[in-house]
Design a protein that fits this description.
alpha/beta; 2 domains; 7-stranded parallel β-sheet; 8 helices; binds nicotinamide-adenine-dinucleotide
Length: 270
């Protein structure tokens, strides 16, 4: 008779994963992929309280793991430190930290609102620094850890009208490499995942502004701007990004550190 897999049989059973910006899109898919491998998860992000609770309870029911939610705002360093402490107190450790929360704003640089610049640098770059500095001591003491930063093809190449986003993503590529070197002998790997265009609310929301900034129709933005640079002419799926995150957490990936893993349909190969 075939045996049913128990949570203990899975590759991340007993591990605790904290994923920022996981109430939507890529972060949610990463949380699901890590829970599917048996990790207890702490989700984080903005959104409707009832919808978030449904997601949290759904993770527990579907994957037979424990799931908790932190409402920490990634623009607030003290809340980020509290989020890491909450995860450690609730589940005993943070073994896997996924810095994923991010926002976008599309505008010519001379019209770019300074407060949007500050907000994007805070959420897309500085929040990763604050979470890493809070989580690293525990990872070092346990001699095991995985830090994954959701970067972007925009950590490697630029596009016009996204000055803050491209600056933050290039920054996170540098932060990834630096922390990877610092933790190389401590059993902790630090990597970035750089998707091209993934169909999520973040991408959908920037279509109207891109139409305005470039004077294009919705179809032209999707086909010529978004998929224009993606040679496969297909959007990346959130599940593909989740699968990469799960792989980076595996023992097979223990010698991958300081890497920037592209999942971009060939975008930055051009
Ligand atoms: P999304 O809008 O679907 O999700 C963003 C998440 O971040 C949400 O959970 C949101 O609540 C959270 N968030 C936003 N502001 C926050 C704050 N102040 N505090 C806490 N949480 C906050 O977007 P997505 O496309 O899934 O993007 C996730 C990450 O992937 C981002 O870092 C983004 O830059 C990156 N990325 C996305 C694409 C893409 O094409 N969608 C491509 C490359 C990289």
């Amino acid at each position: 008779m075939p045996q049913t897999a128990s949570p203990e049989d899975k590759s991340l059973s007993g591990r605790v994963a904290l994923i920022t910006g996981s109430t939507s899109g890529i972060g949610l898919a990463i949380a699901r992929a890590l829970a599917a491998e048996g990790a207890n998860v702490v989700i984080n992000g903005l959104g409707d309280a009832a919808a978030i609770e449904k997601e949290r309870a759904g993770l527990e029911a579907e994957f037979k793991v424990r799931a908790a939610y932190s409402p920490a705002d990634m623009t607030k360093p003290a809340e980020i430190a509290d989020m890491v402490a909450f995860a450690q107190k609730t589940f005993g450790s943070v073994d896997i930290l996924v810095n994923n929360a991010g926002i976008q704003h599309v505008s010519p640089v001379e019209d770019f609102p300074p407060e949007k610049w500050d907000q994007i640098i805070a959420i897309n770059l500085s929040s990763a620094f604050h979470a890493i500095r809070a989580a690293v001591p525990g990872m070092k003491s346990r001699k095991w850890g995985r830090i994954i930063n959701t970067a972007s093809a925009h950590s490697l190449v630029a596009s016009p009208f996204k000055s803050a986003y491209v600056a933050a993503k290039h920054g996170i590529a540098g932060l990834t490499k630096t922390v990877a070197l610092e933790l190389a002998t401590h059993g902790v790997t630090v990597n970035a995942i750089s998707p091209g265009y993934v169909w999520t609310p973040l991408v959908e929301r920037q279509i109207p502004d891109t139409m305005k900034a470039r004077g294009l129709t919705r179809e032209q933005v999707i086909n010529d701007v978004l998929l224009g640079g993606q040679p496969t002419k297909q959007f990346v799926t959130v599940e593909q990004v989740g699968a990469m995150a799960a792989f980076l957490c595996s023992e097979a990936a223990s010698q991958i550190t300081g890497a920037n893993m592209q999942i971009d349909g060939g975008w930055v190969a051009q």
